[in-house]
Amino acid sequence: MISIPKGTKDVLPEQSHLWQFIEDTARGVAVSFNLREIRTPVFEHTELFLRGVGETTDVVTKEMYTFEDKGGRSITLKPEGTAGVARSFIENGLQNSALPLKSYYITPCYRYERPQKGRLREFHQFGIEMFGSAQPEADAEVIFAAHTFLDKLGIKGARLEINSIGCKTCRAEYNKALKEYFRPHLGEMCATCNERFEKNPLRIIDCKEEGCKKFTANAPEILYYLCPDCKRHFEKVQSCLKALNIKFTVNSNIVRGLDYYTRTVFEFVSTEVGTQGTLCGGGRYDGLIEELGGGSVPAIGFAAGLERLLLAGVTALDAPVPEIYLGGMDEISRLKAFEIVNGLRSNGIAAECDLMGRSVKAQFKYADKTGARFTAIIGGSELESGECNIKRMSDGKTYSVAFSDIYNFLANNK
Length: 414
What we know:
The protein has 2 domains: 16-167 and 227-311, Bira Bifunctional Protein, Domain 2 (BirA Bifunctional Protein, domain 2); 324-411, Anticodon-binding domain (Rossmann fold), CATH 3.40.50. Strands 1-5-6-11-10-9-7-8 form an 8-stranded mixed beta sheet. The protein has helices spanning 16-32, 46-52, 58-63, 82-91, 136-152, 168-182, 191-199, 210-216, 228-243, 288-291, 306-311, 331-346, 360-370, 380-385, 406-411; strands at residues 36-37, 43-45, 66-68, 74-77, 101-110, 122-131, 159-164, 248-250, 262-269, 278-284, 299-305, 324-328, 351-353, 374-378, 387-392, 398-402. A hairpin with an 8-residue loop joins strand 9 and strand 10. The chain is built from 15 helices and 16 strands. The chain is of the alpha+beta class. It is 37% helix and 21% strand. The two termini are 44 Å apart.
């Protein structure tokens, strides 16, 4: 037997309605926020992620699925959604459209890492990207979209944590402070932190090694190094969130795991998904478009992992069931049931009939397993009269209904 690759997961028929509920909810929220869907390839040139995500991030250094294609080009399965959307924004001249440009995606992503609860090698994201606005209100709108999405999914106990990691100006001063703080401790810190010390000391704060956490916990806080513009921006974001009645906590340890972030960063976290508590996260990335060869275009977005949302207790309706199961006592009556059922389907009614040549008793058992709301069996007398007795399974009540009226009966008894 060939088994599924490690770090991937099948979505079985009895589970798929939960995924559809999340995806339908995401699209519903997108419509209400005037977002249009964008679809980008599942693989891109590796350079896109090296330049966009950042060469010192764990995603690039440890987790990317990178390979050489038959033309000798370095190709990478996308580990996140933003870089591809940014590339598309530049390549397709979307900066010439009405701004801000608001888009969303639902996409698979790939990261090579140790599979654990809420973290797989193939996973799926719902993401929002907004290009063109540098205003704090844009930050608040994107955060409110994430808040609305989680609320409509019925997820309880998700809390919002926000931070500002500044711009290039204040980041330079902060990096100096970090180097001064971490330099005496480098001998006790991991090799990755030592490498990041020279290239990008901000990334050290994101280290997951236990031996490094005791040092990162007491590192200088970036909020004390924000320039006046970044400070005003962050204060206005908080004012906007308060106006929307969104509760939040300022957490100076949030830096996010990707290098393109600037200024506002945020996460919605939950205790329902184990050690990997982030349900969705995002922030502003004002320099990404320029870094990838486009103009200076401010942007902000977020992404939510669908697998983690399922772990967090998505509240969905029960799996869909047929409105009616229509069986037959013999070959002729089964053919009539087949004809009626497919006529109902053509008119949007979910219906089932026998495809296995089962006995009447076995058909009733199968009908019960499908969860059909109504059942009926056609035999010789039903064929002669042109009507059948339809049983409502919830209370056992029966109705005599002509074959030609079954559609109207079901439509009026939803």
